[in-house]
Amino acid sequence: MSWEAGSDEIYTVQVEVVGEDRSGLLTDIMVIAAENKVNITSVNARADEQHNAVIYLNIHVNDLTRLESLMTKFRRIRDVFSVKRVSNQAS
Description:
Helix content is about 25%, strand content about 45%. It is an alpha+beta fold. The chain has a single domain, classed as 2-Layer Sandwich (Alpha-Beta Plaits).
């Protein structure tokens, strides 16, 4: 997928966040999304066999820079091990 600079196109991107399965991790993620005025269209969270929280977020973004900034902020959350883009599509 190409990201068109200056476009008004909104992209739905799925981001995977993996971290320690602890109380408040999802809240920390949602607070950062809200502070950055990012629309989250769905959330799927579970604990894996190693007791890690695996969280999938579908978010709306309009450019790659904004997505990368948001992912960097997610990585700074205490107990987050990894953040990656899983998929994306134009809305």
